[in-house]
Each structure stands twice: as C-alpha cells, then as structure tokens.
Amino acid sequence: MLAVLLVDPQSRVNSVIDIAELKKFDVHIVSDLKEIVDMEYDGEPIVMLDGFVQSENGVSELVLYRELLGFRYIFMSSNDTLLKQMEKHAKVFAFDTSHIGFSIILAAVNDDKEAGSFYLVQPEERYIKLAHMVADNLGSFDVTVRGIASALLNVLADNKRLFREKTELKEELDSLHALNQNKDVQLKYMSELTGDMLRQTVRVNDALENYSFLCQKDTFKKIALDEFRNHPNIIYFKEFGDFLHLESFVRTLAEVFKTQYDCPVKVLWLLDKKNSLRQKYIPEYYTVFADGVFRKPHIQVSDYMCVTGGYDGVLSTICENQTGVEYLIVIDSKLVNDTVIPVADVLRFDLCRSKRKIKSFGLLDSRTIVNNEEDRELSWNHFYEYEQLTEEDRYLYLANRPVIQHIVGMAQEEFSLS
C-alpha cells in the first residue's frame, strides 16, 4: 500500500477524486480515521484534505491517533492559513485539491513540493495579440481559429478573475490574522488580569481567615496559675516554624523526668484548629481533644495530649492536678505569637528550626533551641548514629544530649528538682 487517502464528506463535495486510478496504484481510500485501525496499516502516510481538519473534532482526532497509534499525516490544501496551522501536525503540501489523482499523491509521498506549486497559465504576448485580432475580425477567420482565440481570451479572463479573488482573499486573511493577533493579546491580558484577581482574592480570603482566627476568644485567653493551689511545674515551649524531630525531643525530655527523677509528667500540645496538615501527623499515642471538647477521666489517664481550640478548659483541668502530676510540658505550636500561660509563671524556651531566624523572630538566644547546630548546646539534631543503637541505648543516647541536660538543669534551679 502506497498511502491512505482520507476523504471526508465535505471533501467529496469540494474535490473530484479519481478513485479508479488511485485504487489501481494501491492508494487506499477511507472516510474516517477509525477505518484505518481495522486495516493492515504499517505506517503508510495518511493524506487528508481541507474538509477533515475544518470539521468539529478533526484536529483533536488526528492528534489522538498520532499519539496512540503513530499515524503519519500529509495535509493538502490551497489555504495558506490552514497550511500554517497544520505544520505542527503533518507534512503540508500546497496543492489545488479540486482534483485528486495518483500523480499528486505520489508527489506528496515523495516530498516533491514543486509538483504542488501554483501556476497561472500565461500565454506569450504575441499569441494574446493574435487572439484579440481574431476577436476583432471574426469574419476574416474560420471557425477553428475563432474557437481557439475565444478559448485563449476566456483563459486570460479567468486568470485575471482568479488572481483578483486570490488577492482579495489574501488581504482578508491578513486582516483576520491581524484581528486574531489582537484578540490573542487581549485574551492574554484578560487571563493575566483574571489571574491577578484570583491571587488577590486568595490573599484576601487568607487574611480574613487569619483575622477570624485571631478574633477567637480562646486564642489569647490566659490561665492564671495562682488560681490553682496544686498546679504542676510547667515547662513551656513556643514553636516558631516547623521544628525538626519535635516528637522525639519532647518524648525524650518527658521520659528523663519520669525515669531518672521519678516525676509524674504530662505533655500537652497546642495546635490551631485550622492547621489540618499538622494535625494529620499527630503521633498515635497522643489523645486528641478537638475544639477543647474533653472528659476529665480522659485527661487524668492520658500522659500525651493534643488540643485544638478551647485550650483554657483542658489546661484548667490539668492544673487542678487531681492525679498529682509534677511536671507539665506544654508545646505551643499555635500561629499566634502569644502564650496561654503568663511567661512569669513558667520555665519557657522557644523552638526555632534555624539559628539565623532567632533575631528576625525577636527571640532570646539563651532560651532558644534550634536544629542541627553541632557546636551549640541548645540544639536538637539529626543523629545519624541513632539507627545503629539498640532500643535501650537509643534512650540513653538521646537523654544525655546537652540540650536535654540543660533543660533539666534549668528545671532544677527553677523548681528545686532533686
């Protein structure tokens, strides 16, 4: 098979197709791309005409079949705009498609673009003068000469008409092309404007959400510890940014108080109720109180708790201390730069991932714990040797990190820990 000619219904109307000649020279004719799927197609070029690509789904279909089945296309047309548009999808071939025969299919398959060039029949000037002379003196010439002269003059008239029509069409196409370019510029501008509006809308919505969050009454409501006679000693960590390995840091500190000093300890993690991503990674051993909804027995039996909103109720219950807790470790991960307990009543440290951010957050260097600063005492690092240790050695290793010992020492001074 030399090639496949796709003849859609519109092309059948616009073009005269020499079907017998094409079949004789092994050019297969189909009316739809789907027919090619069912035949023995082996990568032969598929020739298509104006009508198919101008149909509603023509271009999308040819792209689909090219990507799925590797179809190769040749596009024939006398329309400059269509030829330019189809260059990225097919090998284009400029040709008057009013008549399709084997010779032009063969030329297209062999990439002979000269065969498809447009030519205007332009007889020599001397023959034109003779034709006009015959027309002006019809009685002096026989019928045959008069017929030839008339045919020649008709060809000249058609040439002029076609050239004029072609010129008018080209001017119209140029005008439409300029209009399209102008529309493209306007569309691009409108798209950018729409994008800016959407981004501004998102920023406004975020600002409104943050404002709404800041206006929640429990965000700034503080617990006065002097209202509780037997409240636990509180070590308060305020987090700025996402502190690395926070869970292992808090659990190690809590276990040191429990095992080395035999002190009952509870851990309370404060999160924003809008921070759904952070809540997704709360460890399973934490009891979560959403929006501050809780029952006292749950607080009494839970060593690790997380609360999202309604912080004062949970904190007040813990500070009543009906179970004799000696230390409460509070991890404050709320976005608001404020604490729920007055700083004067607690031993406070700040958690900041990067040492470079201490000044920009306005933190006290001597009370700020950072990540991965090997030469800094107040640093909780990624310990590469940790994975090589046994379970018991892991605890001993982490418990003896300088930052843990520093916090315990500060607690001894602050709360007379013995």
Concise overview:
With 418 residues, the chain is an alpha/beta fold. The protein has 16 helices and 15 strands.
Describe this structure in words.
The chain is α/β, with parallel strands linked by helices. Helix content is 47%, strand content 16%. It contains 16 helices and 15 strands. It has helices spanning 9-14, 19-24, 33-37, 50-53, 58-69, 80-86, 102-109, 125-136, 143-214, 217-220, 246-261, 276-280, 296-301, 311-320, 391-399, 402-415; strands at 3-6, 16-17, 27-30, 45-48, 72-77, 91-94, 99-100, 233-240, 265-271, 287-290, 304-308, 327-332, 347-352, 368-371, 379-380. Strands 10-11-9-12-8-13-14-15 form an eight-stranded parallel sheet, sandwiched between helices. Strands 3-1-4-5-6 form a five-stranded parallel sheet, sandwiched between helices. Strand 10, helix 13 (296-301) and strand 11 (304-308) form a beta-alpha-beta unit. Helix 8 crosses helix 9 (143-214). It is rod-shaped. The mean pLDDT is 85.
List the helices and strands and how they pair.
Layout: E1 3-6, H1 9-14, E2 16-17, H2 19-24, E3 27-30, H3 33-37, E4 45-48, H4 50-53, H5 58-69, E5 72-77, H6 80-86, E6 91-94, E7 99-100, H7 102-109, H8 125-136, H9 143-214, H10 217-220, E8 233-240, H11 246-261, E9 265-271, H12 276-280, E10 287-290, H13 296-301, E11 304-308, H14 311-320, E12 327-332, E13 347-352, E14 368-371, E15 379-380, H15 391-399, H16 402-415
Parallel strand pairs: 1-3, 1-4, 2-7, 4-5, 5-6, 8-12, 8-13, 9-11, 9-12, 10-11, 13-14, 14-15
Helix pairs in contact: 8-9
